[in-house]
Amino acid sequence: MAGKSKRDDAHERAVEEAREQIRAELRGESGGKSGKSGKSGKSNKYGYGAGSARGRTGKLIPFIGGLIIGLIVGALLLLLIGNASQTMFFGTNHTSTTNADTVFQQGMLGTYTAADFEKAILGEASRHKELVVKEQPIEIPTTITRAGLGNLQIFSKVQNVYYYGTGVYTISLAELDASNIRVDEENQKIRVMIPHACLQYINPNLDLTMFEEAGRGLLAFGDIKMTTQEQNSLQQSVVESMRERLTQEDMYIGADEFAKVSAWEIFQPLVASVSPSYLLEIMFDENTFHQDLTH
Question: In angstroms, how far is CA 275 from the centroid of its own chain?
Fold first, then answer.
């Protein structure tokens, strides 16, 4: 019995040693793995290991690259949308540093402040192609004589008639182009060269015609009667008399003065809206001259 007990004890010790050896091997493999992971995965104070940091860095690089690409694409889209909006709202005449009359300042990232006086003035001029600058009332007194027998005053009749009309003077802005607009940056002045005034219309106002009582000789009776042909001939003569007076030099000079005032009133607000620091001067284009356009 004693021998059997000893064998059992030896057997149990051998089994226990085998188990302990297996446990030791298991602890050694797990420790090695834990050591490796502990070495490469040392946690910081926030609980994230270096391996996690490398993982985040690997994910962050594609994110930054995508962000940069997105910003570039967004900038291109904004540029395209900006150009489209400029065309939609401002037309194709958008002012740039290359076509502007003057550039006040240039900043970073393509920003600038520029002024284009030509387009503003020419755009308004095209809207006022024939600008009426003066309407000149005119009166033509006429004496109608109906001579009697032998041209003797005793048989003659005389009547004074007053005809009224209006002469209309204009300047043509249809031919105004960039050569008529001069920008003086040094003195901050805009000079616009306009054509001289022309007589555009003569409007007789026959409703205002006044007739005085006819004067008669002792042997002259009744009023002066005129045929339709005589009346038409008289009216044509009256218009010619009006034209002769309206085309005299003093009339054209007066119309030119009105033309300068009218052009200044039209273009000055445009110049001020582009740049309030610039002054407008209206001058006459010496290549133009006064004309009678009534024929």
Answer: 13
Question: How many Cβ atoms from other residues are within 10 Å of residue 289's Cβ?
Answer: 11
- What's the chain's Rg over C-alpha atoms? 51
Q: Tokens in use for 100?
A: 């502007």
In the block, which residue shows the tokens 């994910």? Answer: 59
Specify which residues 283 forms β-bridges with: 193
For 147, half-sphere exposure in the C-beta direction (CA atoms, 13 angstrom radius) is 4
Phi, psi of 164 (to 5 degrees): -125, 150
* 140 vs 34, residue with greater confidence: 140
Q: Which of 118, 95, 281 is nearest to 188 (CA)?
A: 281
The residues pairing with 193 across neighbouring beta strands, listed in sequence order, are 283
Q: Which of 214, 182, 199, 188 is nearest to 282 (CA)?
A: 182
Percent of the chain having pLDDT more than 70? 56
- Entry field: residues in the chain: 295
Strands 198-211 and 189-194: unpaired
Element of type H or E holding 39: helix 2-40
The H-or-E segment that residue 121 falls in is: helix 117-127
Beta-strand runs (E) in the chain: 102-106, 112-115, 130-146, 157-172, 181-184, 189-194, 198-211, 215-216, 279-284
Residues 199, 169 contacting (CB under 8 angstroms):
yes
Helix (H, G, I), strand (E, B) or coil at 210: strand
pTM summary value: 0.58
